[in-house]
Amino acid sequence: MCRHLAYAGPALPLGELLVTPPHGLYRQSWAPRRQRYGTVNADGFGVGWYAEGDPVPARYRRAGPVWADGSFADLARVVRSTALLGAVRDATLSGADAEAAAAPFAADRWLFSHNGAVPGWPGSLAALVPSLPPREVLALEAGTDSAFVWALALHRLRAGAAPSRALAETVRAVAEAAPSARLNLLLTDGGTITATAWGDTLWYLSRSGGGTVVASEPYDDDPRWREVPDRTLLAASRSEVRLAPIEEYAPVIPEESRT
């Protein structure tokens, strides 16, 4: 459920990555090629990006499908950035959160997206609520599984955890509480990209003109796209991509707890 993409590299128009490619995120909103769960991502969309000299990202989000927004294509054509995170949403559960539930979520210098679902939400993650300060629980941007997963990751980041550890530990904690959860997480601070492959597809591309793209699925048929194995953490800069098993950053869940 959902499709997302992050980029870090030389400045480009947002549309060059999201709209123009033949199978870009814009088209993936109604015709994804590799989506395993769901078929149409019409429950909201968003993009966040960084302006030169400003570490705090801007966001543009809407509750409806991206193809129904007449302003987005123009915005994406003229706005340039060296880093972005975009997402189109297929809601796990229908609700009244509107654009507040659309990724990317943001705090401080971070942008975040969750591709997946947590079965049994919210009851399945009730045991994790005490791991957050009450103020952070009350400040959730939306009453969704993705917003809660973001709160768990952000709490670790603000406590000083490196992005790779923050995402890996969040995935492990959520997967232990909800073993069938799908937890492809995507995080950027404008210079680096961190992502997890846990239950759905994840790919990356080192662009010939410089820069790195990490996405739920390839936006074109360039043979240089590489798939990330399941249960793997990806850490990328503008010029380098590193992969490692998530278990290197967080304890392994005993097999019996996954059944």
Automatic annotation (TrEMBL):
Transmembrane segments: none annotated. Keywords: Glutamine amidotransferase, Hydrolase. Signal peptide: none annotated. Pathway: Amino-acid biosynthesis; ergothioneine biosynthesis. This is Gamma-glutamyl-hercynylcysteine sulfoxide hydrolase. It catalyses: gamma-L-glutamyl-hercynylcysteine S-oxide + H2O = S-(hercyn-2-yl)-L-cysteine S-oxide + L-glutamate. GO terms for biological process: ergothioneine biosynthetic process. Its EC number is 3.5.1.118. It comes from Streptomyces griseoviridis. HAMAP family: EgtC. GO terms for molecular function: hydrolase activity, acting on carbon-nitrogen (but not peptide) bonds, in linear amides. CDD domains: YafJ (cd01908). Catalyzes the hydrolysis of the gamma-glutamyl amide bond of hercynyl-gamma-L-glutamyl-L-cysteine sulfoxide to produce hercynylcysteine sulfoxide, a step in the biosynthesis pathway of ergothioneine. NCBIfam families: ergothioneine biosynthesis protein EgtC.
